[in-house]
């Protein structure tokens, strides 16, 4: 049924870069055969899922939305892919994304933009717009995204779906094509909080293949979602981040956010205002740290190891082939970040830019520590505006970067955060997201609060 739905609508939505019809049918039949034989089935046996195209899949193309990886077929599965398969999940295909996950609109994809199912002339968020659009258009009930600065939560917000960035280290990064290794985190996307929790519980857990993977029990997010739904959140302390309001926030987004806070109060939560003074500096710090790490991570695309190779006709040196391939294979945003990062890391500038940004990162983490000493969770709008029109911000990187104003602090500090729908903005009828933020390894609190308010 989901493959039929993809066939019927994806020409318009363009959520998928690759649909693995054969592989999906094979996996579904394998589940049927197991069931018929009376064998034990995995927790998500037979449930279809869409996978962001930076998660490696053995035998299935993985492009990261870039020309430089066109034609690359990974020889192995990421830990996330393997865990999904072990749980019986049927992977439908790979979803569109901003090139190497750099963007907030899916427009930097080398394979063309994805439409927002609510209005196809608008962006589905980014970088994981293919994943959010696939679930919002009922092409898949579940999807996996990755969130370096907001790429799970912002797409969830603008498509009226649920997305979670788990605690950094909760989900293995092994087999995820790296953008910014100290920020990247894979996480679950679905149309409601309980489905998101079920997917979370399958992908999270310690992995010796990732040195930053946390070796501790995964909080019971499924029980927390059920608890939120059935018992609510009486007695929980909720902090409203003071810095996330005012100039640049759409009136309807602020209105729905304020109403959501009243709903939380009505459910018995104690609501207080919290100031996190250093959050104002999160965006500039992120745009030094993320490009710095990306300039190093993307050095591996040298025309020798993967995908595209340009100028390999005997008339060019190996160095020239690398340069020609990177020139042709990377898009403008990726090049901008590589240049910015290389500059920020160069000797003489390192202390002034990268070093300074790392200090700001510590101050932001301390803001969170102080806040979580007073409250159980923090809340804010997920993103300042609803889905903007395709093309509106492509020539204005600063305007694009502002979409992640509220999501970036949690990547810098490594804590857990969720976006859950909180109504439609009155002025344009488009979805608004409520962001819920919890301390590291307290991901269960997101699910309790999210399930109570959805
Ligand atoms: N939009 C942010 C960026 O462009 C975040 C991207 C992400 O989370 N992958 O870097």
Which helices and strands occur, and which strands form pairs?
Layout: H1 2-13, E1 16-19, H2 21-36, E2 48-52, H3 79-86, E3 90-95, H4 129-136, E4 142-146, H5 153-159, E5 162-165, E6 186-190, H6 193-203, H7 221-231, E7 237-241, H8 251-266, E8 270-274, H9 282-297, H10 318-329, H11 332-345, H12 351-374, E9 377-381, H13 397-401, H14 408-413, E10 416-424, E11 431-438, H15 443-453
Parallel strand pairs: 2-3, 2-4, 7-8, 7-9
Antiparallel strand pairs: 1-3, 4-6, 5-6, 5-10, 9-11, 10-11
Helix pairs in contact: 6-7, 7-15, 9-11, 9-12
The number of domains:
1
Could you list the spans in which at least 5 consecutive residues all have pLDDT below 50?
A: none
- Round the Cα radius of gyration to an integer and report it: 21 Å
The biggest beta sheet is recorded as: 11 strands, mixed
Under CATH, the topology is which? Amidase signature (AS) enzymes
Q: What ligand species are in this complex?
A: glutamine
What would your notes on this structure say?
The protein has a single domain, classed as Alpha-Beta Complex (Amidase signature (AS) enzymes), CATH 3.90.1300. Helix content is 39%, strand content 13%. It has helices spanning 2-13, 21-36, 79-86, 129-136, 153-159, 193-203, 221-231, 251-266, 282-297, 318-329, 332-345, 351-374, 397-401, 408-413, 443-453, and strands at residues 16-19, 48-52, 90-95, 142-146, 162-165, 186-190, 237-241, 270-274, 377-381, 416-424, 431-438. The chain has an 11-stranded mixed sheet, sandwiched between helices. A hairpin with a 6-residue loop joins β10 (416-424) and β11 (431-438). α6 (193-203) packs antiparallel against α7. The longest helix is centred in the C-terminal third of the chain and has 24 residues, at 351-374. Bound molecules: glutamine. The site of glutamine (GLN) has 13 residues, from loops.
């Amino acid at each position: 049924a989901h493959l039929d739905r993809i066939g019927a609508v994806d020409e318009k939505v363009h959520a998928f870069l690759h649909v693995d019809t054969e592989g999906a049918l094979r996996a579904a039949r394998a589940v049927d055969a197991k069931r018929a034989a009376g064998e034990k089935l995995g927790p998500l046996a037979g449930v279809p899922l869409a996978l962001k195209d930076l998660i490696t899949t053995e035998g299935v193309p993985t492009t990261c939305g870039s020309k430089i990886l066109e034609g690359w077929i990974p020889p192995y599965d990421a830990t996330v892919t393997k865990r999904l398969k072990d749980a019986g999940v049927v992977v439908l295909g790979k979803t569109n994304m901003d090139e190497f996950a750099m963007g907030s609109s899916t427009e930097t994809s080398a394979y063309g933009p994805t439409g927002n199912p609510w209005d196809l002339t608008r962006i589905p968020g980014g970088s994981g717009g293919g994943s959010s659009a696939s679930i919002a258009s009922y092409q898949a009930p579940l999807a996996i995204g990755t969130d370096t600065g907001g790429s799970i939560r912002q797409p969830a917000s603008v498509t009226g779906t649920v997305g979670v960035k788990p605690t950094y280290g909760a989900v293995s990064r092994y087999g995820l094509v790296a953008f910014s290794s100290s920020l990247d985190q894979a996480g679950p996307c679905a149309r409601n909080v309980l489905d998101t929790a079920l997917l979370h519980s399958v992908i999270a857990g310690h992995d010796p293949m990732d040195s930053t993977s946390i070796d501790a029990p995964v909080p019971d997010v499924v029980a927390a979602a059920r608890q939120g739904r059935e018992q609510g959140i009486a007695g929980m302390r909720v902090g409203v981040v003071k810095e996330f309001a005012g100039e640049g926030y759409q009136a309807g987004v602020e209105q729905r956010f304020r109403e959501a806070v009243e709903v939380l109060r009505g459910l018995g939560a104690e609501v207080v205002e919290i100031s996190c003074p250093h959050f104002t500096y999160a965006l500039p710090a992120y745009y030094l740290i993320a490009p710095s790490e990306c300039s190093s991570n993307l050095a591996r695309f040298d025309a020798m190891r993967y995908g595209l190779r340009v100028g390999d006709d005997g008339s060019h040196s190996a160095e020239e082939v690398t340069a020609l391939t990177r020139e042709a294979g990377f898009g403008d945003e990726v090049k901008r970040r590589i240049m910015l990062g290389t500059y920020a890391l160069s000797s003489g500038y390192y202390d002034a830019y990268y070093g300074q940004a790392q200090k700001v990162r510590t101050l932001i983490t301390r803001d969170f520590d102080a806040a979580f000493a007073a409250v159980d969770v923090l809340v804010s709008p997920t993103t300042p505006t609803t889905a903007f029109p395709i093309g509106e911000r492509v020539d204005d990187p600063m305007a694009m970067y502002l979409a992640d104003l509220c999501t970036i602090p949690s990547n810098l500090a490594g804590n857990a955060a969720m976006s859950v729908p909180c109504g439609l903005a009155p002025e344009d009828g488009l979805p608004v997201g409520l962001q819920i933020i919890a301390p590291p390894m307290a991901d269960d609190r997101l699910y309790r609060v999210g399930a109570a308010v959805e």
